[in-house]
Amino acid sequence: MARELQIECERECRNGKCEQGECRCDEGFRHSPGNLQNCEPFCEQICESGRCIGNNRCECFEQYELVEPFVCAPICETDCVNGFCSAPNHCQCHEGYRKSNESDSECRPVCGDTDCTNGVCVAPNECSCLDGYYPDEDNMFLCLLDAKAILLPREGSERDYYKMSYMHYFIPVIACVSLILAILIIKMIVRNRQKNYHVGKLESKENCVYFMPNPDSKTDELTKLNLPVETI
């Protein structure tokens, strides 16, 4: 039996096999437009941020990773907070957020042009008031001091009675003032009592000092003790 004559291809058949002078592409490849001697990789969809390597497979560019069969996404070494990685190591904030001054990978919510007054911006155009404050009805970015913490209305009365909600700040002050007043009063009492006494010194072997309620009674007291009287 005679062997079949093999016809060679005019040029090298890339990514395929030459059969009887015709370039037949490998699986996942197809002829290049206008060039039947060359087979190029084939993907049913375009590879985003990558290139088709044939058989519906994509190879991502450097610093990109495959997240879907035909989609390559950029890689950010630090996770983007309230944003997304739009390019290698570059975060882009979601709508209503802006870059933080402290970190390029963190986005913080925006509340108006001046941010929240007496509050914290927790979401785009959403303020959370600090303790003791409430949101203003006319300005959503302003928090006002809560009058309920200071002004408490009494039931059955048209007047508003003031009551301080921070009495614990005044209790130590009141205690200190009371203590000082008590000390002053005690000193005054002791001083008034001392005015009714006269101090006399007696020279004796023991060098004793005697306190007498009245200077006129000094002689009588010393006489009872059988001691010499010193003229004062």
Walkthrough of the structure:
Among the domains are: 76-109; 112-151, no CATH class. By secondary structure, the chain is mainly beta. The protein has helices at 171-194, 218-224; strands at residues 16-19, 22-25, 29-32, 35-41, 50-54, 57-60, 64-68, 71-74, 83-87, 90-93, 97-99, 107-109, 119-123, 126-129, 133-135, 143-145, 151-153, 160-162, 198-201, 209-212. The chain starts with 15 loop residues before the first strand and ends in an 8-residue tail after the last helix.
Tally of contiguous helical segments:
2
- The H/E string reads EEEEEEEEEEEEEEEEEEHEEH
Broad structural category: mainly beta
Percentage of residues in helical conformation: 10-25%
Placed side by side, the strands forming the largest sheet appear as 1-2
Low-confidence stretches: 153-166, 198-206
- In whole angstroms, how far apart are the ends? 165 Å
Organism: Anopheles triannulatus
Protein name: EGF-like domain-containing protein
Keywords: Membrane, Transmembrane, Transmembrane helix
InterPro entries: EGF, EGF-like_domain
